[in-house]
Amino acid sequence: MNDLQAKRRVLSGMRPTGRLHLGNYMGALYNWVRLQDQYDCFFFIADWHALTTDYANPGDVWQKSHDVALDFLAAGLDPERCVMFRQSDVLQHAELNLLFGNLTPLGWLERVPTYKDQQEQLREKDLATYGFLGYPLLQSADILLYKPAFVPVGQDQVAHVELTREVARRFNQLYSSAVTPEVAAAKSDKELMKAEVSENLIELAILPEPKVLLTPSPKLPGLDGRKMSKSYGNTIALTESEADVRKKLKTMVTDPARVRRTDPGDPDVCPVGDLHKVFSSPETMAKVYEGCRSAGIGCIECKGWAADSIVREIAPIAARRAEYEAQPEKVEQILTEGAARARSVAEATMREVRVAMGLARASH
Ligand code: TRP
Ligand code: SF4
Q: Does the annotation flag 53 for ligand binding?
């Protein structure tokens, strides 16, 4: 690909939960790292989003964001090949969120499935707030500011990208200008989309509708066999030391049918088997299936192999994290430079949006 064939843009964000675990990595970051060469990538730490649920006890959001940035870099996001930044460093996210608030019907937000689900699941928090209802709209602003072609997310975020598409459509219907074909041709670059051709006029969509890029996100089991999640306290950190990976795996639950060493088991119903499927080679997998089903191997041996596979994947990540940990100013500098690049794209969109909504005059 040469410079003339501009790469299509991808944007995604992650809440700052502090140090990432293997489930966060396989669900998002692993995929992002692989998108860097193919697309013009923007990845950000959604620190404002943390407050939509944790406003009462935010903790040190700054530090948690810094830790996520360390894991981004450790996992292989490369500031030379992608733009990475903190959301709160780019105030245009807040401005677009505010403007969107005027044109978004309440019902659209009330109908987002996570709205009621999360309120029920997080009963200890009072989530009957404006910010919590509105966070998918903030996410729409996060996305549309950059006019990405694709938003790589897991299944749980698809509804939010759908809302984003609806918001873009409504915005374009309300504010897009109709221009003559000549003007359209002159303006025609990858951002401008022909929405509709009517008589001699062409509608130019200001905010193109992005598509979901559904990334494979294997459900990683945690040590207790439930989904790996910080709130269950069953995680293996992305940068866990080798000794701790081995120690943690020893405590992991296995196929309950294997009570004694001589009982055969089934890797398909064993959480350790699920880890093998994600991290182990086909050769190791074959040994696991054969040995487990014939009771030829013990669970301790099998867990040792799983630990080997995990350590092989994460050892280089831990090493890179240690390098960046020693230079926190460099990490912050990467985020500052990323924010400057993000801001220039976001501000260009905002200039169009302000003009379209009648808040500013087009400057020539
Ligand atoms: N809501 C997303 C999550 O909880 C994080 C997020 C915020 C995001 N803004 C985004 C993801 C924009 C993609 C695009 O995981
Ligand atoms: Fe699970 Fe491995 Fe034990 Fe089989 S041998 S039950 S796959 S830990």
A: no
